[in-house]
């Protein structure tokens, strides 16, 4: 890859829209991808910066017998009350943002292009920290069906989780580039290849 200025590209989409499909492909291509969900899980692990915050807020009812977070219990508590969810999110988001940007800056010391997979990218205003945003788009009806199937949710449970994010159509108007994941995987990969060629100067 020719020497260029460093570039940070955000990857986002709705829940179950296929972000991991795209980011796994980018990793196969040799790119560095910061996975915000994975970073959050690290921070929420016992001894992590977010663990005590969550336990102080919710109590032991979100803990598994081994003392780690019971993610199913945490999810149920988190999505049970909009006001509570907003309070918990505010407590976590500052720490998460600091960690994500620190990891980005460290990677940019060695790599010219770094991707950041951030599900709530627009909702939390990360776009100001990025050079471009790529949206993994899926037809909303497909998104609902995939989420129900993937997580064994009822339609009501799936709709409730989708409703906590901006809609895919709203995100579509905010993104710089669109990766339509509604068709075959080969079509998705071809769209990613086109974007890599355009933005990162990587040939297919």
UniProtKB/TrEMBL annotation:
SUPFAM superfamilies: P-loop containing nucleoside triphosphate hydrolases. Its EC number is 2.7.1.24. The keyword DNA-binding does not apply. Its main location: cytoplasm. Pfam families: CoaE. InterPro entries: Depp_CoAkinase, P-loop_NTPase. It is an enzyme of class 2 (transferase). PANTHER family: BIFUNCTIONAL COENZYME A SYNTHASE-RELATED, DEPHOSPHO-COA KINASE-RELATED. Catalyzes the phosphorylation of the 3'-hydroxyl group of dephosphocoenzyme A to form coenzyme A. This is Dephospho-CoA kinase. It comes from Streptococcus pluranimalium.
């Amino acid at each position: 890859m020719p020497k260029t200025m460093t570039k940070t590209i955000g990857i986002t989409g709705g829940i179950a829209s296929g972000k991991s499909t795209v980011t796994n492909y980018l990793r196969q291509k040799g790119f560095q991808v910061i996975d915000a969900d994975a970073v959050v899980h690290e921070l929420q692990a016992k001894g992590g910066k977010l663990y005590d915050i969550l336990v102080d807020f919710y109590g032991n009812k979100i803990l598994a017998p081994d003392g780690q977070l019971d993610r199913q219990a945490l999810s149920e508590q988190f999505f049970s009350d909009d006001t509570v969810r907003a309070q918990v999110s505010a407590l976590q988001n500052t720490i998460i943002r600091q960690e994500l940007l620190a990891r980005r800056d460290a990677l940019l010391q060695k790599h010219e292009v770094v991707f950041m997979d951030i599900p709530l990218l627009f909702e939390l205003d990360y776009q100001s920290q990025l050079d471009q945003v790529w949206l993994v788009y899926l037809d909303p009806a497909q998104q609902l069906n995939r989420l129900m199937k993937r997580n064994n949710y009822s339609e009501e449970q799936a709709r409730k989780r989708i409703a906590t994010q901006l809609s895919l159509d709203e995100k579509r108007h905010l993104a710089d580039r669109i990766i339509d994941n509604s068709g075959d995987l080969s079509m998705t990969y071809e769209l990613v290849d086109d974007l890599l060629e355009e933005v990162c100067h990587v040939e297919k």
